[in-house]
User: Fold this.
Amino acid sequence: RIANPLEVTVQDADTGSPIPNANVVYVVSDLHDYQCTRGRVIRTSSDSNGHIDISGKRSWGFYIAAPGGLPTPDHLIAIWAPGYSTYLFGQYDGSIESKKKMCINRKDIVEALIEIPTDSMSKDLTLNPVSELMGGNIKLIKIR
Assistant:
């Protein structure tokens, strides 16, 4: 699998109310595709009920196990809404700046990464455990 499905509902962390029109940037690169040559970028938003549903993508090929286990594709997911914090999940580093450097030759990916607001980033794993990225709820904190 190159891109896992993303199925979440975006909610206000305090009230549990759905957040419609939350922005999403999902960037995924294949195994060993460190320059994002074959990377996939998806820009979308949550529906009126705060729901986001992005289908997965599979690709077949020959992969050799590396010491320490099989490498996995590099996923970066950002979800934000006006007046709320930005949720960021990165498969490895999780840094937007490092991802921009890696994908410097992919203008579409770099442009998508530039859109992500970093001034209100929330990486509270107790609020948004990684397990919530499939069929769960991503909670954004209202900026006061």
